[in-house]
Design goal:
By secondary structure, the chain is α+β, with helices and mostly antiparallel strands. The protein is about 35% helix and about 25% strand.
Length: about 375
Amino acid sequence: MTSPVETIAQWQEEFAAIRRDIHAHPELGLEEHRTAALVAAKLREMGIEVHEGVGRTGVVGVIRNGNGRRIGLRADMDALPMEEETGLPHASTHKGRMHACGHDGHTTMLLAAARYLQQTRRFDGTVHLIFQPGEEGAGGALAMLEDGLFERFPCDEVYGLHNRPGMPVGQAGLRPGPMMAGVAFYDIVVQGRGGHGARPEATVDPVVAGSAIVGALQSVVARNVPAIERAVLSVTRFDAGNAYNVIPDRVRLGGTVRAFSRTMMELVEQRMRAIAEGVAAGFGASATLDFRVLTTPLVNDAGATEALAAAAAALGATDADFPAVMGGEDFAFMLEKVPGAYAMVGNGDTAEVHHPKFDFNDAAIPHGAGLLAAVVERQAPRV
């Protein structure tokens, strides 16, 4: 009996063409109308039950084959707002939009796994094929959950994956427990009293107050987060004024926070608010913090991780020592509702994700799709 990878590899040319078509027509979060329509059409061609408009532009396919376990397989569909610089024949045809994170590949791998599972039916149960919109900060996972994803399509466990540049094609990496950080974006507005640059004594200078806040924020992780925990607080924006001889009325700081637990995220937010307000007050200014959690930490269930690792090992793909990373992934919200696991799959020697020269490696399609199919066959074996 051939493995899922071997079977899916026979369809390589067809699915590579699908992936390149999606790549050439990237769509941003919650605007994936063409991509969703393509996914729905391909699933229907396979004879799979299709539900559209789940969480606005999400698609769910359903394969029923017995009364065993109900397993969810998830892929993301959205692109990024950036210019592509690959120069490839299938490069983006839309200015300012690009599949720079490989979601075109993830979508294609789940479509390939869907065909395999629909044709072979070497499982007992129900598979829910979850094509999620808006992973790149648009709230797509929450949109699907708020639309009753797991009430309408109940899952006993759910699995997802992401390509990993620098990891050999055919290899997989995962770990139990926290694997990816929770992510927040924030803005701090410092309100002062502007005036002429020649008369600073008549102003409350928000630039000076904002600069002091930037320095003070560096103490949050160093002096509040326990050494056994991990967190990152970065100030990445400082917007102030537009004239050489005018002290502005206000400045805006912005940046990101990453941590591996909700508790640490809440601690960092509390300390940031206290520092911003206190430091600003010391200069006679005021400060307000807008702290927005984009995703919680991604935490792999121990049992589901073991199952996914065993499926990968059967395909010769296990790398059990994959490190936790500070990147975020809103699949974490689904894992808070249903036990599951998330794996990295090798994309070979390519540019890094979110780089203008990145392109998903089509050679990885059978391996990622095969892993998704293999965990279904392992967890819902046909008697």
